[in-house]
Protein backbone atom coordinates (compact mmCIF):
# COMPACT_ATOMS: atom_id res chain seq x y z
CA UNK A 1 0.00 0.00 0.00
CA UNK A 2 2.73 2.35 1.00
CA UNK A 3 4.61 1.56 -2.19
CA UNK A 4 1.56 2.23 -4.35
CA UNK A 5 0.95 5.60 -2.77
CA UNK A 6 4.54 6.58 -3.44
CA UNK A 7 4.30 5.40 -7.07
CA UNK A 8 1.08 7.25 -7.69
CA UNK A 9 2.58 10.32 -6.12
CA UNK A 10 5.43 10.24 -8.59
CA UNK A 11 2.94 9.66 -11.40
CA UNK A 12 0.90 12.65 -10.31
CA UNK A 13 4.04 14.77 -10.03
CA UNK A 14 5.17 13.81 -13.54
CA UNK A 15 1.73 14.55 -15.00
CA UNK A 16 1.78 17.89 -13.30
CA UNK A 17 5.15 18.70 -14.84
CA UNK A 18 4.08 17.63 -18.31
CA UNK A 19 0.77 19.45 -18.22
CA UNK A 20 2.35 22.64 -16.87
CA UNK A 21 4.95 22.46 -19.63
CA UNK A 22 2.12 22.50 -22.15
CA UNK A 23 -0.15 25.02 -20.51
CA UNK A 24 2.40 27.72 -19.72
CA UNK A 25 3.78 30.06 -22.41
CA UNK A 26 7.37 29.28 -23.34
CA UNK A 27 9.75 31.55 -21.39
CA UNK A 28 11.17 34.39 -23.47
CA UNK A 29 14.85 33.88 -24.28
CA UNK A 30 17.00 36.19 -22.18
CA UNK A 31 18.59 38.96 -24.22
CA UNK A 32 22.12 39.72 -23.12
CA UNK A 33 24.04 42.57 -24.67
CA UNK A 34 27.36 44.16 -23.83
CA UNK A 35 27.94 47.77 -22.83
CA UNK A 36 31.55 48.32 -23.85
CA UNK A 37 33.87 45.27 -23.71
CA UNK A 38 32.36 42.07 -25.11
CA UNK A 39 32.52 39.28 -22.56
CA UNK A 40 33.22 41.66 -19.66
CA UNK A 41 30.39 44.20 -19.58
CA UNK A 42 27.26 42.14 -20.22
CA UNK A 43 23.84 43.36 -19.18
CA UNK A 44 20.54 41.47 -19.26
CA UNK A 45 17.68 43.25 -20.99
CA UNK A 46 14.67 43.80 -18.76
CA UNK A 47 11.81 46.25 -18.33
CA UNK A 48 12.35 49.10 -15.87
CA UNK A 49 8.66 49.91 -16.29
CA UNK A 50 6.23 48.12 -18.60
CA UNK A 51 7.40 48.91 -22.14
CA UNK A 52 10.45 50.86 -20.90
CA UNK A 53 13.58 48.70 -21.20
CA UNK A 54 16.85 49.24 -19.31
CA UNK A 55 18.75 48.98 -22.61
CA UNK A 56 18.17 48.68 -26.32
CA UNK A 57 20.59 46.31 -28.01
CA UNK A 58 21.94 46.27 -31.54
CA UNK A 59 20.61 43.21 -33.37
CA UNK A 60 23.76 43.30 -35.51
CA UNK A 61 26.56 43.53 -32.95
CA UNK A 62 24.85 42.84 -29.62
CA UNK A 63 26.14 46.15 -28.25
CA UNK A 64 24.00 48.48 -26.14
CA UNK A 65 22.73 51.39 -28.25
CA UNK A 66 20.50 53.16 -25.72
CA UNK A 67 20.03 53.25 -21.95
CA UNK A 68 16.58 53.59 -20.38
CA UNK A 69 18.20 54.76 -17.15
CA UNK A 70 21.87 55.80 -17.32
CA UNK A 71 22.27 55.22 -13.56
CA UNK A 72 20.78 51.74 -13.41
CA UNK A 73 23.09 49.50 -11.36
CA UNK A 74 25.59 52.26 -10.51
CA UNK A 75 27.29 53.22 -7.23
CA UNK A 76 29.18 56.40 -6.21
CA UNK A 77 32.62 56.50 -7.84
CA UNK A 78 34.47 56.90 -4.57
CA UNK A 79 37.27 59.35 -3.84
CA UNK A 80 38.84 60.69 -6.98
CA UNK A 81 41.31 63.59 -6.84
CA UNK A 82 40.01 66.77 -8.51
CA UNK A 83 36.49 65.45 -8.98
CA UNK A 84 35.49 66.94 -5.64
CA UNK A 85 33.74 69.92 -7.27
CA UNK A 86 30.98 67.59 -8.41
CA UNK A 87 28.21 67.30 -5.78
CA UNK A 88 28.43 64.10 -3.72
CA UNK A 89 26.83 61.13 -5.47
CA UNK A 90 26.85 62.83 -8.87
CA UNK A 91 29.83 60.87 -10.19
CA UNK A 92 28.82 57.23 -10.44
CA UNK A 93 30.23 54.02 -11.92
CA UNK A 94 29.15 50.44 -12.45
CA UNK A 95 31.05 48.23 -10.01
CA UNK A 96 33.49 45.80 -11.64
CA UNK A 97 33.71 43.31 -8.77
CA UNK A 98 30.42 41.62 -9.67
CA UNK A 99 31.60 41.08 -13.25
CA UNK A 100 34.80 39.30 -12.26
CA UNK A 101 34.02 35.60 -12.15
CA UNK A 102 36.95 34.59 -9.93
CA UNK A 103 36.44 37.45 -7.47
CA UNK A 104 34.72 35.45 -4.71
CA UNK A 105 37.73 33.13 -4.58
CA UNK A 106 40.68 35.49 -5.08
CA UNK A 107 41.19 36.88 -1.62
CA UNK A 108 39.49 34.16 0.39
CA UNK A 109 39.59 30.63 -0.95
CA UNK A 110 42.91 30.75 -2.77
CA UNK A 111 45.05 33.64 -1.51
CA UNK A 112 44.14 34.16 2.11
CA UNK A 113 46.82 36.74 2.85
CA UNK A 114 49.47 34.17 3.71
CA UNK A 115 50.27 33.20 0.15
CA UNK A 116 49.05 30.61 -2.31
CA UNK A 117 47.74 27.55 -0.52
CA UNK A 118 50.05 25.10 -2.19
CA UNK A 119 53.54 23.99 -1.28
CA UNK A 120 55.69 25.79 -0.50
CA UNK A 121 53.26 28.51 0.65
CA UNK A 122 55.19 31.72 0.12
CA UNK A 123 54.59 35.15 -1.32
CA UNK A 124 56.52 36.36 -4.35
CA UNK A 125 59.68 38.12 -3.23
CA UNK A 126 59.91 40.39 -6.29
CA UNK A 127 57.75 41.71 -9.11
CA UNK A 128 59.88 39.86 -11.69
CA UNK A 129 57.94 37.66 -14.12
CA UNK A 130 57.70 33.98 -13.21
CA UNK A 131 55.52 31.39 -14.93
CA UNK A 132 52.21 30.82 -13.09
CA UNK A 133 50.61 27.83 -14.85
CA UNK A 134 47.61 27.66 -12.46
CA UNK A 135 46.63 31.26 -13.17
CA UNK A 136 47.35 31.02 -16.89
CA UNK A 137 45.08 27.98 -17.12
CA UNK A 138 42.21 29.90 -15.50
CA UNK A 139 42.70 33.21 -17.33
CA UNK A 140 44.20 32.50 -20.80
CA UNK A 141 45.26 36.14 -21.30
CA UNK A 142 47.82 35.60 -18.53
CA UNK A 143 49.63 32.92 -20.56
CA UNK A 144 51.69 35.53 -22.28
CA UNK A 145 50.95 38.81 -20.54
CA UNK A 146 50.79 41.46 -23.25
CA UNK A 147 50.26 44.60 -21.22
CA UNK A 148 53.41 46.72 -21.01
CA UNK A 149 55.38 44.78 -23.60
CA UNK A 150 57.11 42.64 -20.97
CA UNK A 151 57.88 45.51 -18.61
CA UNK A 152 55.17 45.04 -15.99
CA UNK A 153 53.95 42.03 -14.01
CA UNK A 154 51.10 40.93 -11.74
CA UNK A 155 52.09 42.74 -8.55
CA UNK A 156 52.45 46.08 -10.32
CA UNK A 157 48.65 45.96 -10.38
CA UNK A 158 47.47 43.34 -7.88
CA UNK A 159 47.98 43.75 -4.12
CA UNK A 160 50.51 41.32 -2.69
CA UNK A 161 48.59 40.10 0.34
CA UNK A 162 45.02 41.24 -0.46
CA UNK A 163 44.36 39.54 -3.77
CA UNK A 164 40.82 40.88 -4.04
CA UNK A 165 42.34 44.37 -4.31
CA UNK A 166 44.45 46.29 -6.79
CA UNK A 167 47.42 48.32 -5.55
CA UNK A 168 48.39 52.00 -5.62
CA UNK A 169 51.88 53.51 -5.70
CA UNK A 170 52.23 53.36 -1.91
CA UNK A 171 51.37 49.67 -1.80
CA UNK A 172 47.91 50.47 -0.40
CA UNK A 173 44.89 48.50 -1.63
CA UNK A 174 42.61 49.94 -4.33
CA UNK A 175 39.13 48.60 -5.10
CA UNK A 176 38.50 46.80 -8.41
CA UNK A 177 35.64 49.29 -8.76
CA UNK A 178 38.14 52.17 -8.98
CA UNK A 179 40.58 50.91 -11.63
CA UNK A 180 41.35 54.51 -12.64
CA UNK A 181 43.40 54.82 -9.46
CA UNK A 182 45.50 51.89 -10.64
CA UNK A 183 45.77 52.74 -14.33
CA UNK A 184 46.46 56.38 -13.46
CA UNK A 185 49.72 55.34 -11.78
CA UNK A 186 51.25 54.78 -15.20
CA UNK A 187 48.79 56.47 -17.58
CA UNK A 188 48.37 59.81 -15.84
CA UNK A 189 47.59 61.61 -19.09
CA UNK A 190 44.77 59.20 -19.95
CA UNK A 191 43.40 59.38 -16.41
CA UNK A 192 43.32 63.19 -16.57
CA UNK A 193 41.54 63.13 -19.94
CA UNK A 194 39.12 60.52 -18.58
CA UNK A 195 38.40 62.62 -15.49
CA UNK A 196 37.71 65.63 -17.72
CA UNK A 197 35.43 63.61 -20.01
CA UNK A 198 37.74 63.65 -23.04
CA UNK A 199 38.81 59.98 -22.92
CA UNK A 200 36.35 57.10 -22.53
CA UNK A 201 32.67 57.68 -22.10
CA UNK A 202 30.12 59.28 -19.78
CA UNK A 203 26.35 59.14 -19.89
CA UNK A 204 23.74 61.04 -17.89
CA UNK A 205 23.13 64.73 -17.38
CA UNK A 206 24.71 67.26 -19.69
CA UNK A 207 25.56 70.06 -17.17
CA UNK A 208 29.15 69.92 -15.92
CA UNK A 209 28.04 69.38 -12.30
CA UNK A 210 25.10 67.14 -13.32
CA UNK A 211 24.93 63.47 -12.39
CA UNK A 212 26.92 61.26 -14.74
CA UNK A 213 27.99 57.67 -15.06
CA UNK A 214 31.67 57.34 -15.93
CA UNK A 215 32.64 54.15 -17.74
CA UNK A 216 35.68 52.84 -15.89
CA UNK A 217 38.96 51.91 -17.63
CA UNK A 218 38.40 48.14 -17.32
CA UNK A 219 34.90 48.31 -18.75
CA UNK A 220 36.63 49.11 -22.05
CA UNK A 221 40.21 47.81 -21.74
CA UNK A 222 41.21 44.25 -20.90
CA UNK A 223 43.96 44.92 -18.35
CA UNK A 224 45.83 41.76 -19.31
CA UNK A 225 45.79 42.24 -23.04
CA UNK A 226 45.72 45.90 -23.95
CA UNK A 227 47.89 45.29 -27.00
CA UNK A 228 45.03 43.32 -28.58
CA UNK A 229 46.82 40.51 -30.41
CA UNK A 230 47.95 41.04 -33.97
CA UNK A 231 46.61 44.58 -34.04
CA UNK A 232 49.16 45.36 -31.32
CA UNK A 233 47.38 48.53 -30.33
CA UNK A 234 45.41 49.74 -27.30
CA UNK A 235 41.80 48.59 -27.68
CA UNK A 236 39.79 45.54 -28.68
CA UNK A 237 37.76 46.94 -31.52
CA UNK A 238 34.07 46.21 -31.67
CA UNK A 239 32.17 45.47 -34.87
CA UNK A 240 30.77 48.65 -36.46
CA UNK A 241 27.05 49.23 -36.84
CA UNK A 242 25.56 49.56 -40.32
CA UNK A 243 25.81 53.11 -41.74
CA UNK A 244 22.81 55.39 -41.14
CA UNK A 245 20.01 55.61 -43.71
CA UNK A 246 20.62 58.07 -46.53
CA UNK A 247 18.37 61.14 -46.70
CA UNK A 248 15.33 60.76 -48.97
CA UNK A 249 16.18 60.94 -52.66
CA UNK A 250 19.93 60.35 -52.21
CA UNK A 251 21.11 57.18 -53.95
CA UNK A 252 24.57 56.83 -52.44
CA UNK A 253 27.10 58.73 -50.33
CA UNK A 254 29.84 58.93 -52.95
CA UNK A 255 29.93 62.71 -52.70
CA UNK A 256 31.45 62.28 -49.27
CA UNK A 257 34.57 60.79 -50.83
CA UNK A 258 35.21 64.01 -52.74
CA UNK A 259 36.66 66.88 -50.81
CA UNK A 260 35.57 70.11 -52.35
CA UNK A 261 38.81 71.91 -53.13
CA UNK A 262 38.17 75.36 -54.55
CA UNK A 263 39.14 75.52 -58.25
CA UNK A 264 40.70 78.73 -59.57
C1 LIG B 1 48.07 46.36 -15.68
C2 LIG B 1 47.61 45.83 -14.45
C3 LIG B 1 47.49 44.32 -14.30
C4 LIG B 1 48.47 43.37 -14.47
C5 LIG B 1 49.91 43.59 -14.89
C6 LIG B 1 47.86 42.11 -14.15
N1 LIG B 1 46.54 42.29 -13.80
FE1 LIG B 1 45.21 40.86 -13.29
N2 LIG B 1 43.71 42.22 -13.30
C7 LIG B 1 43.89 43.58 -13.37
C8 LIG B 1 42.60 44.24 -13.28
C9 LIG B 1 42.35 45.74 -13.33
C10 LIG B 1 41.63 43.22 -13.16
C11 LIG B 1 40.11 43.39 -13.11
C12 LIG B 1 39.57 43.25 -14.52
C13 LIG B 1 38.14 43.69 -14.72
O1 LIG B 1 37.64 44.56 -14.01
O2 LIG B 1 37.53 43.13 -15.63
C14 LIG B 1 42.37 41.96 -13.14
C15 LIG B 1 41.79 40.71 -12.99
C16 LIG B 1 42.51 39.56 -12.71
C17 LIG B 1 41.94 38.28 -12.39
C18 LIG B 1 40.47 37.97 -12.33
C19 LIG B 1 40.05 37.66 -13.74
C20 LIG B 1 38.71 37.04 -13.94
O3 LIG B 1 38.34 37.01 -15.13
O4 LIG B 1 38.05 36.58 -13.02
C21 LIG B 1 42.98 37.42 -12.19
C22 LIG B 1 42.89 35.95 -11.82
C23 LIG B 1 44.21 38.14 -12.41
N3 LIG B 1 43.88 39.45 -12.74
C24 LIG B 1 45.48 37.62 -12.29
C25 LIG B 1 46.63 38.23 -12.74
C26 LIG B 1 47.94 37.60 -12.83
C27 LIG B 1 48.25 36.19 -12.35
C28 LIG B 1 48.78 38.50 -13.38
C29 LIG B 1 50.24 38.33 -13.75
C30 LIG B 1 50.56 37.25 -14.68
C31 LIG B 1 48.03 39.71 -13.62
N4 LIG B 1 46.73 39.51 -13.23
C32 LIG B 1 48.53 40.90 -14.16
C33 LIG B 1 45.09 44.24 -13.56
C34 LIG B 1 46.28 43.63 -13.87
C1 LIG C 1 52.73 49.67 -13.72
C2 LIG C 1 52.44 50.52 -14.85
C3 LIG C 1 51.14 50.32 -15.60
C4 LIG C 1 49.87 50.21 -15.08
C5 LIG C 1 49.45 50.19 -13.61
C6 LIG C 1 48.97 50.17 -16.21
N1 LIG C 1 49.67 50.23 -17.37
FE1 LIG C 1 48.89 50.25 -19.25
N2 LIG C 1 50.78 50.21 -20.04
C7 LIG C 1 51.94 50.25 -19.33
C8 LIG C 1 53.05 50.14 -20.23
C9 LIG C 1 54.53 50.15 -19.83
C10 LIG C 1 52.50 50.04 -21.54
C11 LIG C 1 53.24 49.82 -22.84
C12 LIG C 1 53.42 51.06 -23.61
C13 LIG C 1 54.14 50.70 -24.90
O1 LIG C 1 55.30 50.38 -24.85
O2 LIG C 1 53.49 50.72 -25.93
C14 LIG C 1 51.07 50.09 -21.37
C15 LIG C 1 50.17 50.06 -22.42
C16 LIG C 1 48.80 50.26 -22.29
C17 LIG C 1 47.87 50.37 -23.38
C18 LIG C 1 48.20 50.25 -24.84
C19 LIG C 1 48.81 51.48 -25.37
C20 LIG C 1 49.21 51.35 -26.80
O3 LIG C 1 49.53 52.38 -27.35
O4 LIG C 1 49.20 50.25 -27.34
C21 LIG C 1 46.62 50.55 -22.85
C22 LIG C 1 45.31 50.73 -23.59
C23 LIG C 1 46.77 50.53 -21.41
N3 LIG C 1 48.10 50.35 -21.11
C24 LIG C 1 45.73 50.66 -20.54
C25 LIG C 1 45.86 50.47 -19.15
C26 LIG C 1 44.75 50.34 -18.26
C27 LIG C 1 43.30 50.40 -18.65
C28 LIG C 1 45.27 50.16 -17.02
C29 LIG C 1 44.53 49.89 -15.72
C30 LIG C 1 43.74 48.66 -15.69
C31 LIG C 1 46.71 50.19 -17.13
N4 LIG C 1 47.03 50.37 -18.45
C32 LIG C 1 47.60 50.09 -16.08
C33 LIG C 1 52.05 50.40 -17.96
C34 LIG C 1 51.00 50.32 -17.06
C1 LIG D 1 34.46 53.96 -23.26
C2 LIG D 1 35.66 53.17 -23.43
C3 LIG D 1 36.96 53.60 -22.82
C4 LIG D 1 37.21 53.91 -21.50
C5 LIG D 1 36.21 54.00 -20.35
C6 LIG D 1 38.62 54.14 -21.39
N1 LIG D 1 39.22 53.97 -22.62
FE1 LIG D 1 41.19 54.08 -23.02
N2 LIG D 1 40.84 53.87 -25.03
C7 LIG D 1 39.60 53.64 -25.57
C8 LIG D 1 39.72 53.64 -27.03
C9 LIG D 1 38.60 53.41 -28.01
C10 LIG D 1 41.09 53.88 -27.31
C11 LIG D 1 41.75 53.99 -28.69
C12 LIG D 1 42.54 52.76 -28.93
C13 LIG D 1 43.14 52.67 -30.30
O1 LIG D 1 43.58 53.67 -30.86
O2 LIG D 1 43.21 51.55 -30.75
C14 LIG D 1 41.76 54.00 -26.02
C15 LIG D 1 43.13 54.18 -25.85
C16 LIG D 1 43.80 54.14 -24.63
C17 LIG D 1 45.24 54.12 -24.45
C18 LIG D 1 46.24 54.06 -25.58
C19 LIG D 1 46.37 55.38 -26.23
C20 LIG D 1 47.28 55.34 -27.41
O3 LIG D 1 47.99 56.33 -27.55
O4 LIG D 1 47.28 54.38 -28.19
C21 LIG D 1 45.49 54.11 -23.12
C22 LIG D 1 46.85 54.08 -22.44
C23 LIG D 1 44.20 54.13 -22.44
N3 LIG D 1 43.21 54.16 -23.40
C24 LIG D 1 44.03 54.13 -21.08
C25 LIG D 1 42.81 54.30 -20.44
C26 LIG D 1 42.67 54.55 -19.00
C27 LIG D 1 43.81 54.65 -18.03
C28 LIG D 1 41.32 54.66 -18.76
C29 LIG D 1 40.63 54.99 -17.45
C30 LIG D 1 41.11 56.15 -16.71
C31 LIG D 1 40.64 54.46 -20.04
N4 LIG D 1 41.58 54.27 -21.02
C32 LIG D 1 39.26 54.48 -20.22
C33 LIG D 1 38.42 53.44 -24.88
C34 LIG D 1 38.24 53.66 -23.52
Quick overview of this protein structure:
The longest helix has 22 residues, at 2-23. Helices cover 21% and strands 12% of the residues. Helix 4 crosses helix 5 (188-195).
How does this structure look, described?
The strands form five sheets. The chain has a four-stranded mixed beta sheet with strand order 7-8-12-11, with no helix packed on it. Strands 1-2 form a two-stranded antiparallel ribbon. Helix 4 (179-186) packs across helix 5. It has two domains: 31-69, no CATH class; 71-231, no CATH class. A hairpin with a 2-residue loop joins strand 3 (47-49) and strand 4. It is an alpha+beta fold. The model is unreliable at 1-22 (pLDDT under 50). The radius of gyration is 25 Å and the shape is globular. The chain has helices at residues 2-23, 103-110, 133-138, 179-186, 188-195, 217-220, and strands at residues 32-34, 42-44, 47-49, 52-53, 55-57, 64-67, 75-76, 91-93, 166-167, 173-174, 202-204, 212-214. It starts with a helix and ends in a 44-residue tail after the last helix. The site of one heme C has 21 residues, from helix 4 and helix 6.
Write the layout of secondary structure elements.
Blueprint: H1 2-23, E1 32-34, E2 42-44, E3 47-49, E4 52-53, E5 55-57, E6 64-67, E7 75-76, E8 91-93, H2 103-110, H3 133-138, E9 166-167, E10 173-174, H4 179-186, H5 188-195, E11 202-204, E12 212-214, H6 217-220
Parallel strand pairs: 8-12
Antiparallel strand pairs: 1-2, 3-4, 5-6, 7-8, 9-10, 11-12
Helix pairs in contact: 4-5
One heme C binds at residues 40, 96, 99-102, 132, 135, 139, 142, 145, 147, 152-154, 156-158, 166, 176, 179, 182, 218, 223-224.
Amino acid sequence: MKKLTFGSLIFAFCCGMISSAFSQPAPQPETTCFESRKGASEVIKRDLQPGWPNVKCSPLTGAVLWWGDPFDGTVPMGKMPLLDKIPPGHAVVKPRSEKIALMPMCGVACHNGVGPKFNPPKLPTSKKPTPIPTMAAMVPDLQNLQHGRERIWCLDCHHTTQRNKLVDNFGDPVSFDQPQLLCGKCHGDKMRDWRDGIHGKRIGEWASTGKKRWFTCTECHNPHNVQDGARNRGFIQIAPETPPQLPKGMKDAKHELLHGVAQH
